[in-house]
Write a structure and sequence with these properties.
With 333 residues, the protein is α/β, with parallel strands linked by helices. It has twelve helices and twelve strands. 42% of the residues lie in helices and 17% in strands.
Length: 333
C-alpha cells in the first residue's frame, strides 16, 4: 500500500506539500496541487483514515441511529432527512454512517453501532425515533458521547435535541379539520411508545376538547402504508368511516387513498385526508394531499450544526430547537 511518502517521492514534492493537498489547503499552487492529485489518482492512493483519526483525535464521522420499527425500518420522510444529513455533513467535511437500533434493547444487539463510539471510531451520534425512557440516550450520557436527538427529549436534561412542535402540529391538524366543518375525525398514528405519537395525540385531543367534538378516534400502531389501508378498509366495510382522516405521515396516507377509492368513495367529498410531512409525492396524488410541512433542510441543518459544535467543544450550544412548520392546503381537504 502506498504511503504519503511514496506520493511525495513520485510527485517530486515534500511530504508537507502532499499533506496540504490532501487536506485541501489553499497554501499550495494550483500547478503543484494538480501534479500531486494526478499521482494520487494514477496510483489509486487512499489515505489511512484510522491513522489520521489517531493523530487528530477525531474521525470526523457521525453515526445515525434509527429505530428498526419492528423490522419495517424507515419510510420516505426518514430517507429524505437522512439524505439531507449526509449532504450537509459532507459540506462540513464529516462522514455519516447509519446503524439500525432499538430504543429498548440495544445493549443485547450486536448489530448496533455503539461499539464504534466507545472505540473512538466515530465522534458523535444522531438519534432518531426516541421513546420516553430510551436506553440509547442513557448509554450516550453515561459514556459522555456527543449526541443530538431528532425528537423532543426534554426529560433528559443533559441531551440536546431538535424537533417539530408535535403537540402544536397535532392541534393545528385537528383545528384545521374542524374549521373545514369536518365533525367526525380519526387520527392515524404510529407506535404509541414514540414521543412524536404521544405529543401529536395530545395536541389533537386538546383541539377536540376546545371545540367540544366527541366523535373522534385515535388509532395507534398504523406504522405502514399497508396498515393504514387495512384500517381504513375495515372502517368503510363496517360503515364506521369518519368525515376526515388525519394521518401522521404522508406515506401512510397512500394506504388511506387506496382504501377510500377502492370502495368507490371520493376524496374529499366523502372522506377528507390530511397528512403530516409534506413529502414531494403528496402533490402528485389525485387529489393532491393537504399536509403539515416539516422543512427537511432546516431540520437536518440544525441537527448537524448542533452536533458538530458539541463535538468540537463549542461552549453554550443551545439545548433544544423547535423547527417552524406550516399547513399546506391542497385538494384532499
Amino acid at each position: 500500500m502506498l504511503s504519503m511518502k511514496d506520493i511525495a517521492k513520485l510527485s517530486g514534492v515534500s511530504l508537507k506539500t502532499v499533506s496540504r493537498v490532501l487536506n485541501n489547503s489553499d497554501k499550495v499552487k494550483e500547478e503543484t496541487r494538480q501534479k500531486v492529485l494526478d499521482v494520487v489518482h494514477k496510483e489509486g492512493y487512499r489515505p489511512n483514515i484510522i491513522a489520521k483519526s489517531l493523530k487528530e483525535q477525531k474521525t470526523r464521522t457521525i453515526i445515525i441511529f434509527i429505530d428498526r420499527h419492528h423490522g419495517e425500518y424507515w419510510g420516505i420522510w426518514h430517507t429524505m432527512i437522512i439524505t439531507a444529513f449526509m449532504r450537509i455533513a459532507k459540506e462540513m467535511d464529516y462522514k455519516v454512517l447509519i446503524s439500525p437500533s432499538s430504543a429498548s434493547d440495544h445493549m443485547t444487539d450486536q448489530t448496533d453501532g455503539f461499539s464504534f463510539l466507545t472505540s473512538g471510531l466515530a465522534d458523535g451520534a444522531i438519534l432518531m425515533d426516541n421513546i420516553l425512557e430510551d436506553q440509547r440516550i442513557d448509554f450516550l450520557i453515561k459514556n459522555n458521547i456527543p449526541h443530538v436527538v431528532l425528537g423532543n427529549c426534554s426529560n433528559y436534561t443533559k441531551t440536546h435535541w431538535v424537533d417539530l412542535n408535535n403537540y402544536n402540529a397535532g392541534y393545528m391538524g385537528g383545528e384545521y379539520l374542524i374549521n373545514k366543518n369536518y365533525r367526525s375525525l380519526v387520527f392515524l398514528l404510529g407506535d404509541s411508545s414514540f414521543k412524536v405519537s404521544q405529543e401529536r395525540a395530545r395536541g389533537f385531543m386538546e383541539a377536540m376538547k376546545e371545540a367540544d367534538i366527541s366523535d373522534y378516534r385515535i388509532e395507534y400502531g398504523i406504522s405502514s402504508t399497508k396498515k393504514a389501508y387495512e384500517r381504513v378498509l375495515q372502517d368503510i366495510e363496517n360503515n364506521a368511516q369518519p368525515s376526515a382522516y388525519f394521518v401522521s405521515g404522508d406515506e401512510r396516507a397512500l394506504g388511506v387513498y387506496r382504501a377510500v377509492q377502492e370502495k368507490g368513495l371520493r376524496i374529499p367529498e366523502d372522506v377528507a385526508v390530511l397528512g403530516i410531512d409534506n413529502i414531494q409525492h403528496g402533490q402528485y396524488l389525485y387529489p393532491s394531499l393537504s399536509s403539515i410541512n416539516q422543512p427537511i433542510d432546516i431540520f437536518a441543518s440544525q441537527v448537524i450544526t448542533m452536533l458538530i459544535k458539541i463535538i468540537e467543544g463549542v461552549e453554550d450550544v443551545e439545548g433544544s430547537v423547535l423547527i417552524p412548520y406550516n399547513l399546506v392546503e391542497r385538494e384532499s381537504t
